[in-house]
Amino acid sequence: MKKKLTSVVRSMVCLLATVGFIACEDTNYVYVSKAKVGLTPSTDIVFTNEGGERTIAVRTNQKEWTVYSDQDWCKVVPTPDGDGFVVSALPNSTIQSLPEATVTVKTSADQLEDNFATMSLKVNQTGFNLIDLSAEGCANCYVVSEAGYYKFDARVQGKSGLPTASDFSSCSADWIWATQEGLLVLEPKVENGYISFVCSDFKPGNAVVALVEGGKVVWSWHIWFTDQVLEARERNMMCVNLGAVSDLPGEVSQFGLFYQWGRKDPFVASSGVGHYPDQVISSNEEVAFAQGEEDGVSYTAANIVNTNLVSDWNVSKESDAHTHSTASAAATTFFTAIKALPNYGIEWTGESDPCPPGWRLPTRTELGNYFSGSNSTISWEDYKGVIRGKDWIPAQGYRNFQNGRLTLIGRSGWVWTSETNPYDLMTGFNYAIGFEEGGYARTNIMITYGFNVRCAKE
């Protein structure tokens, strides 16, 4: 520390008077050096999410100085030798950067308020690095295979390139439904057009998250939590149905989600394989997703719904046409009228394709070849599904087009293609593949059914 510099001088000050004589007086003066302060290093500090500390040296011409931070997360402590201070930060467990801190050193000469010097440093700490799920392309479904910190581009409707919202400054993020609690933690706002979330404890499952504006959903995305290796083992087709959380033959965890034709938002599956020869799983009421029971066993898959954004699972018989955006706002509503579906009469692609990046909906030729390829045979296994080469295709039934009820679980399975009926685009009958013991059928069928999706490699 440098000592305060002072200088004491004695001088005679002579005053000239108009009366003709000179008066002289002895006076003591104390000259105080102007306060100065400098820091080494003087550059601003950026901590990673792991935290850390930096030692800063203080150079000043005064005996004393003080240092303080304007943010609680940023700590400052003088070093034992008094020649500087330590700036420190604890680990930041969030995905967002902490508020910028200003660390200020102040000194003054003889505590004179009109003679002080200050110098400041800016200190920042980043959040966890965010994995960009949309780095390889935007989609309506993203796959998360381990715990981590994630984001995706929320500015685009699926694979179409069309905008989701016009003003992101008023948008936030929220969840619509999930198969269990704790799958993800959403941050309360959208940053730079990206939705971010934390998967703090990885669990297999599914969830749907939304871009919200004015309390209303403007678009939604399916987050698929699975650690299985998604690959094309047979004829360019994904090895599991979309939404399955394992590839173990005969297991309910191999059940995928259900989709109405042309809609990107999925519906939950069954929690059991049902009973042969015929099983309709539902309550007696016309409610698509009530907790139905058979022999005391519930067959509706466990899930939780955010009723702050959408009503609980329900059925709509209204025939008013929905856009993709309004269908997103009704992600838990099963439409029974064909004209209500947003892709009525057109191909199921682009903004409503439900497959993740690198995958797409299959054509009827691709899906037909997958089921009937000459290089392997289809065999029925205990009324639970079929084996197609190296792939298992579960017979998880479907959701009935009239009321959304789970039907024929363990006895049949149906998978959508991307194609409409070319002979009459407005009939509401499009191509799907269905199978049961004895074979499969490629047919036109009502688009309001809830069937599985088996994605094709792009």
Question: Could you list some keywords that capture this structure?
Answer:
single chain, 458 residues, mainly beta, five-stranded mixed sheet, 2 helices, elongated, disordered N terminus
What can you tell me about this protein's structure?
Helix content is 3%, strand content 40%. It has helices spanning 324-329, 364-372; strands at 6-16, 22-32, 37-40, 45-47, 52-60, 66-69, 74-78, 84-89, 101-108, 116-125, 131-132, 141-144, 148-153, 171-178, 185-186, 194-199, 205-213, 216-225, 232-234, 237-238, 259-260, 280-281, 293-294, 297-298, 304-305, 314-316, 333-335, 359-360, 378-380, 385-388, 391-394, 398-399, 406-407, 412-420, 429-436, 439-446, 450-451, 456-457. The radius of gyration is 34 Å and the shape is elongated. It contains two helices and 38 strands. It has a five-stranded mixed β-sheet with strand order 12-18-17-14-25. The protein has a four-stranded antiparallel β-sheet with strand order 3-5-8-7, with no helix packed on it. Mean pLDDT is 83; it is low at 1-30 and 275-286. It has 458 residues and is mostly beta strands.
Question: What secondary-structure arrangement, pairings included, does this model have?
Answer:
Layout: E1 6-16, E2 22-32, E3 37-40, E4 45-47, E5 52-60, E6 66-69, E7 74-78, E8 84-89, E9 101-108, E10 116-125, E11 131-132, E12 141-144, E13 148-153, E14 171-178, E15 185-186, E16 194-199, E17 205-213, E18 216-225, E19 232-234, E20 237-238, E21 259-260, E22 280-281, E23 293-294, E24 297-298, E25 304-305, E26 314-316, H1 324-329, E27 333-335, E28 359-360, H2 364-372, E29 378-380, E30 385-388, E31 391-394, E32 398-399, E33 406-407, E34 412-420, E35 429-436, E36 439-446, E37 450-451, E38 456-457
Parallel strand pairs: 4-10, 11-13, 12-18, 26-27
Antiparallel strand pairs: 1-2, 3-5, 5-8, 6-9, 7-8, 9-10, 13-16, 14-17, 14-25, 15-16, 17-18, 19-20, 21-37, 22-33, 23-24, 28-38, 29-30, 30-31, 32-33, 34-35, 35-36
